[in-house]
Every structure is written in structure tokens, then in C-alpha cells.
Design a protein that fits this description.
By secondary structure, this protein is mainly alpha-helical. It has 6 helices and no strands.
Amino acid sequence: MSDAEIAYLRERAARGDEDAAAQLVELAGERLDSYDLKLLAENGSTDAMDELVQLAAEEGDLDETVRLAAAGDQDAVEVLDDLYDEDPTEDGT
């Protein structure tokens, strides 16, 4: 997808087009683009938030997972719970 097409999708999503927002989430997820996912999540996309949690977990980004959990994302909380169950030491060693 070209930059112009992505820009057009962003414009549509900004005007409330949920289909355009869903396409942007899918594209950002495919590109592993956490920046775009964060922007979409900040604009209310729960799908983008889900992708962010998944991406952070897959990349082992504990700081991002903690940030998402602190923001109230239940999936991020569950990822942290799973990590703690795997290694309950406080410092991860």
C-alpha cells in the first residue's frame, strides 16, 4: 500500500470511518509498527490496543506491557500475570 493510500485511510479514520481504522490497525500490525498502533489506540481503537499488547508480548517488551497494564488494559495485565507465574522472582532472575 502506498503512502498516499495510507494517508487517505488516516484521513478517513480521523473522520470516524471504522473500516479505515480497522485497515490501519491491520497494516500497522503487519508492519510491527507500534507507533501507529499507539496513535490508533489513543484515538479509541481497542483493536489497536490488542495489537499493541500482542506485539509487546511477542517482542518481550516488559516496559511497554507494564505501561499498557497501568493504563488499564486487561490483556496486558494477564500477560504480566503469565510472566510472573513463569518466573515469580521480583527481579526476573
